[in-house]
Amino acid sequence: MEKILVKADKRTELGKGSARSLRRQNVLPAVLYGEGKSVTIKLDRKEIQKLIYSGGGEHSLITLELNEGNSKTSEHPVLIKDYQREPVSEELLHVDFIEVSLKKKIKVTIPVVIIKEPAGIKMGGILQHRVREIEVECLPTQIPDRIEIDAGHVEIGHSLHVSDITPQEGLKIVTDPSEVILSVTAPKEEVVEAAPVEAAAAEPEVIKAKGKAEEEGEQKEQKGK
Predict the structure, then answer these.
(1) Alpha-carbon span 7 to 10, nearest angstrom
(2) What is the DSSP letter of 76?
(3) Domain 4-100: which CATH class?
(4) pLDDT by residue for the chain (225 residues), tens digit each?
(5) Contact criterion met (CB below 8 Å) for 85 and 119
(6) What's the CATH number of domain 107-185, 2.170.120.20, 3.40.50.300, 3.40.50.1100, 3.40.50.2300?
């Protein structure tokens, strides 16, 4: 697994006003949690934003190189615990990191990626991609970037479950094995309804026929007399 290194500095500026001032300088306020304590830090916003939005850092182990001042630095293995972003511009506003032990297994969510289109799609089927992430348990150094699914053999009316995934060594899948990752359903058939017969148009014909019969009956009556 490629090592992801992110540099940060300890932050002494606190409060909302200081946080806004840092963001104007493209510096992101953040917090490092670990061992029952927290440390306020700051880092390059563009660097961490690119890392998160590319999908490579949100679920990955990161080595946080922290500048503690007086030429003293320390390295911390961390995961991104949470982050906030501006809803309109989507720029990062804050990130929370959590320090982890490299010797203890942890639970993380990993994205599920389909690498081959199901055969049923080529036959006109409709793909239903239901599970896009699964939870796994492993050492921080064994966290995969993603779980790849080869769905090429899935035909119409069939599906793939979590139980169909073969995990790599050291990886335990926590998500319910009966969960459906994807399925291919048959296309819906269009039902063409027949145009309704207009009763109003038929009614005058009945009336006319009836009138003609009555008229013929009256003529026969008169002849009989």
Answers:
(1) 10
(2) E
(3) mainly beta
(4) 567 899 999 887 777 778 788 888 888 899 999 888 899 999 998 888 888 887 666 778 999 999 877 778 899 999 999 988 888 888 888 899 999 999 999 999 999 999 899 999 989 999 999 999 999 999 999 998 889 999 999 999 999 999 999 988 999 999 999 999 999 999 877 655 666 655 555 555 554 444 555 555 555 555 555
(5) no
(6) 2.170.120.20
Q: Which two tokens stand for residue 181?
A: 């990752």
**Please, how many CA atoms are within 13 Å of residue 69, restricted to the half-sphere of its CB?**
5
If residue 9 lies in a helix (H) or strand (E), which one and from where to where? strand 4-10
pTM of the model: 0.71
Q: Which two tokens stand for residue 168?
A: 């790599």
Residue type for 30, please?
Answer: A
Residues with Cβ within 8 Å of 201's Cβ and at least 6 positions away in sequence, in order, are: none
Which amino acid is residue 123, in one-letter code? M
165, two tokens: 């995934």
